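<goal> How does this chain fold?
<body> The protein record starts here
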Amino acid sequence: MGLKQTAKSSRDALQQGIYVVINPFVRLLIKMGVTPNMVTTIGFLGNVAAAAVLAWTGWQVMQAPGSQPDYALVTLAGALVIGFSLFDMLDGQVARLGAMTSRFGAMYDSVLDRYCELFTLGGIAYYFMGCGSFGAAIVTFMALVGSIMVSYVRARAEGLDIECKIGFMQRPERVVVTALALLATGIVGQNLPAGSTFAPDAILLCAMWVIAIFANLTAFARIAHCRRQLK
């Protein structure tokens, strides 16, 4: 129990620190007339762009079997994911500081969050398939299943008036792992010495394994938590 409280306190402290940094920008957006839903939509479109870049990279390899992926594009995709995922924090702050909170806005934000993950992980799966790594694409699909189920179990629990935020691999962790893995894969791929036998895509595959395992474990842990609460 103490470990859970420590982890929660650390996450809250980090979140508050980020708010201190972004609040001046948030106030600027409010003065410009930007609404929370506009911020949410921009973040979603950025993640769609990242997925499109990954799919395009995989398609290029598919058209030239045996060629190497354009790792500069993989790096770009990682930068897009981490950059536009920050809008997930911005929209909430714009709503709070601008007194624009609404029930529809909360629902809209949650729905587009799920779409962001579907597109991003879908783009990674297509990238792996384009590179001829069918097994890696399956692992990515399992990561996608776990990611969606973590959110779905929480939503169903809240519908039954149960607070269900337990688990390690929640959305912020999944976004960070995915974005950092894409950046690392792209940067290593661009700077790999000639003749090296290391496959940069192994970095991204390891990240997908981490999400696939821990996201699904989180989903099952939440199911068990709800079962205990409903007894």
